[in-house]
Design a protein that fits this description.
The chain is mainly alpha-helical. It has five helices and no strands. It folds into two domains: about 50 residues, no CATH class; about 50 residues. It starts with a helix and ends in an 11-residue tail after the last helix.
């Protein structure tokens, strides 16, 4: 199951890689390293993901940014440095905010 997840995440990341570069060598090697590295990172992230409750929102912002970047690539290209800065900033920001802001406790309404 973990190996299948590695492949799914690697294939799923191809559009994100094309948002950064069009170089086929980089796309191929990044997917190879993703498949090799995700298995070990999965177990690390599985243990600490509860601490980063805002990370899912940060990832959605990153995916939206990459989608907009790909749509606008012909009209208004965004540089690689800016793209990597936005991605890194959003991810680091969501992790730091997750550590500073405690998770909200869901209250159960009595019916």
């Amino acid at each position: 199951l973990v190996e299948t997840t590695d492949v799914v995440f690697a294939v799923d990341s191809i559009p994100a890689i094309f948002g950064v570069t069009r170089n086929p060598f980089l796309v191929y090697t990044s997917n190879v390293f993703a498949i090799l590295g995700l298995r070990s990172l999965y177990f690390v992230l599985a243990n600490i993901i509860g601490k980063f409750h805002l990370l899912k929102y940060g990832l959605s912002v990153v995916l939206a940014f990459v989608g907009v970047k790909m749509l606008l690539s012909e009209v208004r290209p965004i540089g690689i440095g800016v793209s990597l800065g936005v991605v890194a900033g959003v991810l680091v920001g969501s992790v730091l905010l997750s550590l500073v802001i405690p998770p909200r406790k869901e209250s159960k309404a009595d019916d």
